[in-house]
Amino acid sequence: MKDIESPEDVSFLVDVFYKKILEDETLSPFFAHINFEKHKPRMEHFWNFVLFDESGYTTNVTDVHTSMKIKKVHFDSWVSIFHQTVDAHFMGSNAEKAKQRVALIAWTIESKI
Fold this sequence. Notes:
mainly alpha; 0% strand; 73% helix
């Protein structure tokens, strides 16, 4: 198994992760209205920014999500599915960094809601 090493790996991760999210009955209602193909480049840009220091990402992820009616159970599911997805396909320092970052994002947003 390899690490998350490229934008192509990020694209794969985003695809697999959001497929699982859309299949999850707890989380899918939050994403049902989103045009995934339009939103996907933003998610990829975010993860490329996080993992590879790609410049130009300026969206405040916390602000975007604080208006949603998300509860602890939703954050826990989101983090769990993300970790499962990463662990099923990647191993290495960037994979660990991604899992740490998603947990930090969940904690930060949850603490502000």
